[in-house]
Design goal:
The complex is a heterodimer of chains A (about 250) and B (about 250). Chain A has about 250 residues and is an all-alpha fold. Chain A has helices spanning about 1-15, 20-35, 40-75, 85-100, 105-115, 120-150, 150-160, 165-195, 205-215, 220-250. Chain A has ten helices and no strands. Classes of the chains: A mainly alpha (about 250), B alpha/beta (about 250).
């Protein structure tokens, strides 16, 4: 193949026009094989997965905290509100409002150019920004899951003498997780694709690799199609894995 | 029969009248309980009857503070039932719900062991042994390791009763334990409750099963319009109803 590529570039230099098949091969070779460029894609996939994982963990952590604070606040009985909880609830509400009310791209740029403008580790800054963004959405998903659990479960737990926190942890949350898993899987897939945004702040993930190659070869089609295909395959793999995981969790429903 | 286990004085409960955020007007007020005084003695089997909406379930739920009373006082074994003592009171005051409220993500045996273990009332072996004993008593030893969903309504309610018993309570509150059951399953649950009554445990039962009230209880309380209208032994109350509303109620029920 290398020999064929060399022959084609000789032809091109001498001013001959390549036919359709030759042209495709030439561009394909340039996009993936020349100078072992496929390694850059693999590296990009690695970073993409790492960023997704970091952002997801951060998102679920933040989202769970926000959801628990908000549910605990809303479940207080009228007339006996805890001011400390009220304070944290207000913070959580500001957080979800601001994050959900501004574009992700703007948040990314603010994170990299205003808040962490001295950091050179763009990938991690991007992961942080994505995690904070995801947390706001995850919190609403988890809050919905917690509220969807039959109120009788809380009453049953409390009537056995368990306190609010224990009932939440051992009875409500395990049931909420199962209800929430499909939506959380969806969020995970969105996050995986949204990692491509951190290219704009210089995060070195998959799309960044493709752009680098595009800039060197002046040829967009193969790198972009290649990247699209890789994202698609990744998403399909994770959808399949999530489906398996869900079926396992659903054991007790049968 | 002189050991007073529950002392209720001037208990009132009003729903509504709260001003929610964003609403101009407070929600409409509804006086459900209008001053209830009653003493329950150890070993009493009390049936609460009355037309629907008369406040019998609300009264029962006020006793273990699943509903917060608007006024009056409740003393359980000499301890005021308030927010500070509620968890310790509930450990000694079991509750059986109309809709069973078993924990669907746990097996039957885990349902029974959960609270005694978490509250450190029993260690693992003791809780497990007690659970086996109770399962044998309710006739469901073979169901120890299945999930509640796979059981019939009657079986679920028997497990719910076993779960309440696993805490070794001094009082059990039954909130319409047979109302959500198919007619053919009512018998097995009532039979179990009858056996329970003969062991001398104190029971408060909200029920529409007049046969059960007549046979098993030693006191029947007729609640109407938020007040206790009659409190008599069953023979007296059923054969010689004094209150005109009770007469009308019984004529419809029997």
């Amino acid at each position: 193949m290398a020999a064929q590529y060399d022959a084609l570039s000789e032809l091109l230099k001498s001013g001959t026009r390549l036919d359709f098949g030759q042209d495709l091969f030439y561009k394909f070779y340039q996009a993936f094989l020349l100078k072992d460029r496929w390694l850059q894609y693999i590296e990009g996939v690695g970073t993409t997965l790492l960023v997704t994982a970091i952002a997801l963990c951060l998102g679920i952590l933040l989202g769970s905290i926000v959801a628990l604070v908000r549910v605990a606040h809303d479940q207080q009985r009228p007339g006996r509100r805890n001011p400390v909880l009220g304070f944290f609830n207000a913070i959580c509400q500001v957080y979800t409002t601001v994050i959900r009310g501004t574009p992700m791209m703007v948040q990314l740029l603010i994170m990299s150019m205003v808040i962490f403008n001295n950091s050179r580790n763009f990938t991690m800054v991007g992961a942080l920004a994505l995690g904070i963004n995801s947390g706001a959405y995850v919190s609403e998903i988890i809050r919905g899951g917690l509220m969807a659990v039959d109120p009788g479960q809380m009453e049953a737990g409390r009537s056995l003498g368990l306190n609010y926190m224990t009932t939440m942890v051992v009875i409500i949350i395990p049931q909420a997780i199962r209800a929430v898993l499909p939506a959380l899987g969806n969020e995970f897939i969105m996050l995986l694709k949204d990692t491509s945004l951190i290219t704009v702040i210089g995060g070195k993930e998959l799309l960044y690799a493709a752009q680098g190659i595009m800039n060197r070869t002046y040829e967009a089609m193969f790198p972009l199609f290649g990247v699209a295909l890789i994202y698609l395959i990744l998403v399909m793999i994770f959808t399949w894995l999530l489906g398996k995981f869900e079926r396992r969790l659903a054991q007790s429903d049968r | 029969m002189t050991d007073k286990i529950l002392e209720v004085r001037g208990l009132t409960k009003t729903y509504g009248g709260e001003k929610l955020k964003g609403d101009k007007k407070a929600t409409p007020m509804l006086d459900v309980l209008k001053g209830i005084d009653i003493d329950i003695y150890r070993g009493d089997v009390v049936c609460l009857i009355g037309p629907s909406g008369c406040g019998k379930s609300t009264f029962l739920r006020c006793l273990n503070r699943l509903e917060i009373p608007t006024g009056g006082s409740i003393k359980f074994e000499g301890v005021e039932v308030d927010e500070a003592h509620i968890d310790s009171v509930r450990q000694k005051m079991g509750m059986v719900f109309q809709h069973f409220n078993l924990f669907p993500h746990l097996t039957v045996k885990q349902n029974l062991c959960l609270a005694p273990e978490l509250l450190k009332l029993k260690n693992k072996q003791e809780a497990s042994a007690r659970a086996d004993e109770l399962l044998a008593r309710v006739g469901l030893s073979d169901k120890a390791h299945v999930f509640p969903k796979s059981l019939s309504g009657g079986q679920q309610q028997r497990i719910a009763i076993a779960r309440a018993l696993a805490m070794d309570p001094d009082v059990i509150l039954f909130d319409e334990p047979t109302s959500a059951l198919d007619p053919e399953m009512v018998g097995e649950v009532l039979e179990l409750m009858k056996e329970l009554a003969h062991t001398g445990i104190t029971m408060l039962v909200v029920t529409h099963e007049m046969g059960f009230a007549r046979e098993v209880s030693n006191r029947v309380i007729f609640i109407d319009d938020g007040r206790i209208q009659e409190d008599e032994p069953p023979q007296e109350l059923f054969s010689n109803p004094k209150h005109p509303r009770l007469k009308a109620f019984l004529s419809k029920m029997l």
